Amino acid sequence: xxxxxxxxxxxxxxxxxxxxxxxxxxxxxxxxxxxxxxxxxxxxxxxxxxxxxxxxxxxxxxxxxxxxxxxxxxxxxxxxxxxxxxxxxxxxxxxxxxxxxxxxxxxxxxxxxxxxxxxxxxxxxxxxxxxxxxxxxxxx
Length: 140
Ligand code: SF4
Ligand code: SF4
Hints:
Blueprint: H1 2-15, E1 39-41, H2 57-61, E2 67-72, E3 77-84, H3 93-97, E4 103-105, E5 120-121, H4 123-126
Antiparallel strand pairs: 1-4, 2-3, 3-5
Bound molecules: iron/sulfur cluster (2 copies).
């Protein structure tokens, strides 16, 4: 009897409480400050050059081996940089390993693509959101 009464009180109390969930994607909430979304390669805001020098520290630190980097030895320039976002667990180890602050986790979590292969991010895709900009505050 006590249990039933307690459940009734809980149900009644929760009926008049504001819901903690939202009807996504119709309603959106603000992304917490230290959220980890898709990865981006940072560019120098003045020169527009990629900060990454291809040292490979992030490649070594990824537990799932999702990062592959190729460097042109003659020009000492970054040739290719790929991250397989489809398997990424957003642990942030790659960001921590980068001493040049050239790799950052963004706030973007909407990563769906029609084509699965589009989730293998190349330099173009990794620098797409790298422009210095204010964080987007969403409507509640
Ligand atoms: S650790 Fe940083 S600088 Fe080195 S390859 Fe990765 S992103 Fe580039
Ligand atoms: S966030 Fe983690 S799993 Fe994803 S690429 Fe970086 S180190 Fe690998």
